Structure formats: C-alpha cells, structure tokens
Amino acid sequence: MAGLESAGTVQGGVISYGEAYSQIIEEIGTVTNRARLEADSAKALLVQSENNRESISGVNLDEEAGKLVQFQSAYNASAQVVSVARELFDTLLNAFR
User: I need a surface site. Which of 18, 38, 83, 95 has the fewest CB within 10 A?
Assistant: First the structure.
C-alpha cells in the first residue's frame, strides 16, 4: 500500500497518487487565489463607481438625512404651536359667548 503512493498509477502510469494529489491542490489554490483577486478588484471598482456617482450627483446622503430629521422636528413644533393657538382661540371665543 505504501508503494502505491509513489508508483506511477494515475494517467496511464505516468503520475503517482502523491503527484496527482499535489496537482489537484495546486489547481484549487490557483483558482481560489484568482477568485480572491477578482473579488478584490470588483470591490475596488464598486467603491470607485460609488464615489464617482456621489461626486457627480452632489448629494451627501448623510447630510440630507440630517436635514430631513431637522425639518420633521420643525414641522412637529409648528403643529404644536398651531394646536395651542387653536385652543387659546377657542377659549377666548367661549369666554365671550
């Protein structure tokens, strides 16, 4: 059994089991490394594209979200002022009836 590892028994007796295993591992490593490089390249391209889009549009989403919250608070405060004014007006009208 130990002799089969080094004997030429794979691919028509040309390659041993150990060499065939090494070739498979090498091929898997090469494909894996290529996939990692392509993924890193795609991520860099995505970041670059997003930065270009943001620079062209001129809109900062964080700033716009902050302004939206600010406007919402102002609207709520204005609604509260109108509500209090209506109550005061109703009270004044009821006082003169």
Answer: 95
